[in-house]
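As a warm-up, study this chain.
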Amino acid sequence: MTSPAQPEPTPETERAPVLSVVMPAYNEEATVLATIERVLAVLGYTDVRYEPRIYEAAPGTLMAVLDEHADVDHVLMVGHNPGFEQVAALLHSGLSGDARGMPTAGIARLSLPAGAALEPGIGTLTQFWWP
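Now compare it with the structure written out below.
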């Protein structure tokens, strides 16, 4: 059973990410780490890697970081907007300007074809959740 504040699990969402690529927030690192630990307590264990390029990154940088982990089945990326909502829109619709706003603590889950090169419009938005 889930609380009203978390999405209902499905067979697709019950799989934990294998790798979490997290933005080190410098002055907020303790808060970010505490948040990640709470998320992972729900999702299950994952390898956490801090990636400084994520901080205030443009969609192209976020795509490059994601592409570096193409060999991983499930990746959780954690960071700030506007880059994250723009890369979600870019992967889903092919246009980063299609971003409609992702609220604080929002989660966009995209499904990407295994083994395919990352390019605009390749993903399918399978879930969007916010508290």
